[in-house]
Design brief:
Helices cover 49% and strands 13% of the residues. The protein has 578 residues and is of the alpha/beta class. The protein binds phosphoenolpyruvate and magnesium ion (MG). The site of magnesium ion has 5 residues, from helix 17.
């Protein structure tokens, strides 16, 4: 049994066999196969060799390689791949030791490489690098298959990976992928956010996982405590099965709150909205008792299809979301591409610091055709329901004015063709930089509402990359600097009489709910599966208790002290969560 501690990013318990994906540069774990699976592995092996050879022949032909040294390298690689005794060694290992093709390839090539590396002749020892190269090439073909397997799963698995992209995560078949664990990542990386939206238990930042796992392992992903257990002993497995049953009961009990208002014990109404990445998630928001969409991350339209969406693609997606929620609000955020949200193909600026680079509204303002296409679709959808538009990462008034000017241009275009739209569609902005938080008073004069994006606000205020596991312990909403900024924005929004919500992950965090209410926040937009839990907290407290807690927190100077204090308060209300 091996227990690993990482960062809990999506609650719940998953117990299943592992599936390792995204395995470039991985050490391949020893996985056993059944005797009946031998021939399948041998066929995979043959195909991988054939594809690798064809690939090398094509590269050689296409590049018209003149240089003799490079020709030599290709020749060595091809000779190796054609060498029968070498192939036989690998297939013998699969047949005799009942291991997967990738394990046999990796084990034998590494053995040869380390043998070469140890020879006291520089020409031969340098050949070790060639062997590793060949290993990588073969593994790429063998493991490519894994992705296909992932697309045709028949039994429940937990995904283990070095890292996952948000789109990979969103593409998981939820009927079979019941949990995931990654070596890298942080609590508010977009992969984690998608996992939370999908309600898949997940733990990230676990360090090397692959060497501990084999195909017949059992893996427990404990998304509540941020723990992954590999090959649990009987007692641990029994305890976890029991814990998982309790969690299921707890969740179904919470779901009974669905039709009750999110109202404090002393009668203060709180609006609970959902964050979505895809229009079909809007249904889940309503099913969980949400009152609309507070953040629709539309850039996922880009990330998923691999092609630039057309105006109709945008419109259809928005129309679907609006249809699902009826008259309730839908806040459509204009595309927030960049940093960790990059399309599969196409645009990919070469930047040393993408998080500080051409991302989000900055990118939209530089690519007006793309921006206008989206705005046209949002405006057209605005007649279907209570649609609102929101611009992300606004850092100053000029940016807001520019974005609004473009929106007006698009309105004029629509007027010309008599296309209907809501001329009074509310226009809001996300507050996610210290700059906008500190000048919220100015921005409030020209915005209809604010939504505080705490994920980026924390990243930019504390100078901590939100997706970097090496600094994840520094990423905290409990830092006094963050709490002061939030207070400032809430007060400025209140003074200006405009709407205010919080849509960063802090709004999904049961520990922070009382504090946010005590700071004056009355609208939260969160991951749909978390709505019942947050509602339960709201219904269990009075605003006076929240105000008192907020006053107390304002006197504290240490994030740890604040976090412990908040946790104690939340645990008293919802002991099952902690
Ligand atoms: C945020 O930054 O808090 C936010 C909600 O936006 P995203 O997570 O999509 O960057
Ligand atoms: Mg953001």
């Amino acid at each position: 049994m091996e227990i690993r501690k990482g960062i809990a990013v999506s609650p719940g318990i998953a117990i299943a066999r592992p599936m390792l994906i995204d395995s470039k540069d991985y050490r391949i774990p020893r996985r056993s196969i059944l005797p009946s699976q031998r021939s399948r592995e041998i066929v995979r092996l043959r195909k991988a060799f054939a594809t690798a050879l064809t690939e090398l022949e094509q590269i050689e032909a296409a590049q018209n390689i003149e240089e003799s040294k490079i020709r030599d390298i290709f020749a060595v690689h091809m000779r190796f791949l054609r060498d029968r005794s070498f192939r036989r060694r690998i297939s013998d290992m699969v047949n005799n030791e009942l291991v997967t093709a990738e394990y046999a390839v990796s084990a034998i090539l590494r053995e040869i490489a380390s043998h070469f590396a140890g020879i006291d002749d520089s020409y031969i020892s340098e050949r070790a690098a060639d062997i590793y190269d060949i290993e990588k090439r073969l593994l790429t073909h063998l493991l490519g298959k894994r992705q296909e397997e992932l697309d045709h799963l028949r039994e429940e698995v937990v995904i283990l990976a070095r890292d996952l992209t948000p789109t990979q995560t969103a593409g998981f078949n939820k009927s079979f992928v019941i949990g995931f664990a990654t070596e890298k990542g942080g609590r508010t990386s977009h992969t984690a956010i998608v996992a939370r939206s999908l309600g898949i238990p997940a733990v990230v930042a676990l360090g090397d996982l692959s060497s501990e796992v084999s195909a017949d392992s059992v893996v427990i992903v404990d998304g509540n405590r941020g723990v992954v257990v590999i090959d649990p002993d009987e007692e641990t497995l029994r305890q976890y099965n029991q814990y998982a049953r309790q969690m299921t009961q707890f969740i179904s009990k919470l779901n009974e709150l669905r039709d009750l208002p999110a109202e404090t014990r002393d009668g203060i109404d709180v609006q609970l909205l959902g964050n979505i990445e895809f229009p079909n998630e809007a249904e889940m928001v309503i099913a969980k008792g949400g009152q609309g969409i507070g953040l629709y991350r539309t850039e996922f339209l880009y990330l998923y299809g691999g092609q630039e969406p057309t105006e109709e693609d945008h419109y259809n997606a928005y129309a679907e979301a609006v249809r699902s929620v009826g008259k309730r609000p839908v806040v459509i955020r204009s595309m927030d591409l960049g940093a960790d949200k990059l399309p599969h193909s196409g645009w990919r600026p070469n930047e040393a610091n993408p998080v500080l680079g051409l991302r989000s509204i900055r990118y939209c303002l530089q690519d007006l055709p793309l921006f206008k296409t989206q705005l046209r679709a949002i405006l057209r959808a605005s007649v279907l329901g209570d649609v609102r538009v929101m611009f992300p990462l606004i850092t100053n008034l000029q940016e807001l004015r520019q974005a609004k000017m473009i929106l007006r241009d698009v309105m004029e275009d629509l007027d010309e063709y008599a296309v209907p739209y809501n001329a009074h569609m509310p226009v809001g902005i996300m507050i996610e930089t210290p700059s906008s938080a500190l000048t919220a008073g100015l921005l409030a004069n020209e915005s209809d509402f604010f939504s505080i994006g705490t994920n980026d606000l924390i990243q930019y205020t504390l100078a901590v990359d939100r997706a970097n596991e090496h600094v994840s312990t520094l990423f905290s909403a409990a830092e006094p600097a963050i709490l002061r900024l939030i207070r400032n924005v809430v007060q400025d929004a209140f003074k200006a009489g405009i709407g205010l919500s919080i849509c960063g992950e802090v709004a999904s965090d049961p520990e922070f709910i009382m504090l946010l209410l005590g700071m004056g926040v009355r609208t939260l937009s969160l991951a749909p599966p978390m709505i019942p839990e947050v509602k339960k907290i709201i219904r269990s407290v009075t605003i006076e208790e929240c105000n008192e807690l907020s006053r107390k927190v304002a006197t504290m100077d240490s994030p740890r002290q604040i976090k412990n204090y908040l946790r104690d308060a939340a645990t008293r209300i919802l002991p099952e969560t902690f």
